[in-house]
Write a sequence for this structure.
């Protein structure tokens, strides 16, 4: 009988496992609301409007939400340690690019990719932290802690970045984000075994079309919500075009999900009251953090 190799080395205590996962997840959580740590400084550095800074936060959330389902296929393909390393290094690379870029479009693309990275590290990390609890209870507690941490990120970001922004250019906080990933990578390398939690599942027939359609729709929805009021909603042609395109993408996405044998997003979840209330609560917490 084949010996089952544990995910972490035998000498690693549970408290160190949880600390390691927390250190791995925390930098990506900080990146979520990082532009809001000082909106005026961010806008001045990149030469953009304060609304553009707010939109970059929603683009991060769009990347996080749209990649949520597709991420599971990558987890089934990669070993756990390899999975963490790849997506953590991706966050380091995108933070490095954010440090050097001055263009809004490039910044928004990088922020979307960083949101995808948060999906990958946070989902698995929170599962590992609470894996000793019963499945139903552990899932509820892990997501309660996770979203509670998100709500606390804006004051936390302001606390840790205030002195940096006052002394340096705004982009130096992305350099700080790069170095904040290093402790997590070191701990992962020292404590984890390179094992799989699932049977390797090849990366074929990925539903990229649904991912792109859903992600684009969320970005357009964020654009309408951020810029709509200051541009008098449908009186502005760009807001009007965004509304039309978003409605078209949503329609295509819904039709596609009903037609697929294995849909990217099961529309039946909207029948559950807790799902709707949970989505509304988190959306309110996100919007409450925007000035």
């Amino acid at each position: 009988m084949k010996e089952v190799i544990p995910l972490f080395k035998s000498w690693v205590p549970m408290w160190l496992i949880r600390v390691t996962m927390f250190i791995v997840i925390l930098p990506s959580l900080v990146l979520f609301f990082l532009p809001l740590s000082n909106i005026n400084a961010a806008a001045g550095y990149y030469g953009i409007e304060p609304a553009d800074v707010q939109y970059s936060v929603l683009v991060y959330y769009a990347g996080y939400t749209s990649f949520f389902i597709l991420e599971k296929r990558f987890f089934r393909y990669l070993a756990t340690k390899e999975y963490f390393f790849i997506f953590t290094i991706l966050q380091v690379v995108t933070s490095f690019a954010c440090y050097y870029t001055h263009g809004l479009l490039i910044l928004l693309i990088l922020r979307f990719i960083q949101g995808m990275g948060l999906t990958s590290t946070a989902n698995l990390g929170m599962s590992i932290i609470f894996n000793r609890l019963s499945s139903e209870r552990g899932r509820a507690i892990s997501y309660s802690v996770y979203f509670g941490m998100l709500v606390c990120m804006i004051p936390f970001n302001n606390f840790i970045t205030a002195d940096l922004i006052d002394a340096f250019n705004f982009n130096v906080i992305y350099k700080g984000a790069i170095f904040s990933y290093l402790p997590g990578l070191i701990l992962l390398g020292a404590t984890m075994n390179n094992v799989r939690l699932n049977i390797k599942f090849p990366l074929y027939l990925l539903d990229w079309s649904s991912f792109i359609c859903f992600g684009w729709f969320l970005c357009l929805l964020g654009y309408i919500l951020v810029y709509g009021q200051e541009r008098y909603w449908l009186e502005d042609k760009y807001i009007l075009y965004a509304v039309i395109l978003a409605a078209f993408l949503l329609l295509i996405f819904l039709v596609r999900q009903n037609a697929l044998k294995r849909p990217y997003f099961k529309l039946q979840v909207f029948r559950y009251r807790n799902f709707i209330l949970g989505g509304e609560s988190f959306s309110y917490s996100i919007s409450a953090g925007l000035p």
The chain has two domains: 1-201, 207-291. The chain has twelve helices and no strands. Residues 60 and 266 are 23 Å apart (CA to CA). The first helix runs from residue 14 to 32.
